[in-house]
Predict the structure of NEDD8-activating enzyme E1 catalytic subunit.
Amino acid sequence: MSQIHIQQKRFDPIYKQIEHASKYTEEADLSPEEIKDYLHTRKILVVGAGGLGCEVLKGLALSGFSDIHVIDLDTIDISNLNRQFLFTQEDAGKTKSEVAAAFVNRRVKGVKVVPYVGNIMDQPLDWYKTFDIVIAGLDNVEARRWLNATLVNLARNDIMIPMLDGGSEGLFGQARVIIPQMTACYECTMWTVTPEVTFPVCTIASNPRIPAHCVQYAIMHFPESHDGRKCDGDRDDDVDWCLNVAQERAKQFNIEGVDYKLTLGVIKNVIPALASTNSIIAALCVNEALKLAMNLTFMKHYLRYSGSEGINVQPLEMEMNPDCIVCGGAEISLDVGEDETLGNLIDRLKQDETLQLKNPFVIFNGNAVYNSKLPFTEPNLEKTCLSLFGKHAELTVSDKFMPDDQFLRVKIKVGPG
Ligand SMILES: [Zn+2]
């Protein structure tokens, strides 16, 4: 019998008893009324109404959750229809969250799905505070990192919102339960995330040598002319835009070989999602939501599903990382060579497997030293750290996936490299 009881709106009692959670493996001894009551009072946020999001919405609605909210900034493209089954051909061009919500509301009586169109990073903190559980069905690491950091920050203010994160790639998938400040957060285990192939920022910005550098340049500048939206390899016009910009760039630097196929390859750089894997992973997330909503035990903490050679499902208990940049100390020390440039230093931060910074911006003494959005800081990439910061310095480093009030302190000590 479950011994974990939670309040209407808060999950605190779970956290207090979490160390004993392993004892509570038996079925809940709850009456149907109690279960119904639990499910009807939980307010759930689904982040993303794509392949995973559609499956998660279906699972939640059919399981008895009735207060469901979904956010997505994207519109429906024909290429989505092979897996995003809440949409039809007539929906092309409409917003995903609104169409998905309307479909589920029509289909499942008594369920209210409330759609939001927009970027998760633009939603106020007060909005996040109102949810009991967040399920992330996202297709990119950056948004997951941001969401994770935001929920960890809320937990610091005693607002505990569990995050269930699903991800899928071809025949592989993963699902995990993150209880902010109580279990390993997403960032604690960045080492499990395969780093994207990245090119040194200075190479892309000023010294491209191969065709892929030109495409990366186009991808990097894509959001500036598309309302902050990232380039989507599923959209023909996005790929065309990048192809044009990359070819222009290639011409400038006398580089040959930028064509449609290469551009698409660099943009996608991912294995396509399978509808069947999405549905497995989404179902796991929904099950975890059900257990959390009813105060039962939950999966600890990370599950990797590999469907390539028979089915192998492996749960792993993840440890919190005391040096985690989100829930840990958020400080690192680096030895810097006397000749080392800021560009080198930034590339080192980007290549660090546990940090996996994408496009870090650096602040020193309250001033922006490097920020890819501020062209006047670009010449600093070629300058040495010694000339910019002196022998000892503390830099403030942040990245797009980090919420505004969060940053990493980087202490540097310059010495003969
Ligand atoms: Zn962490």
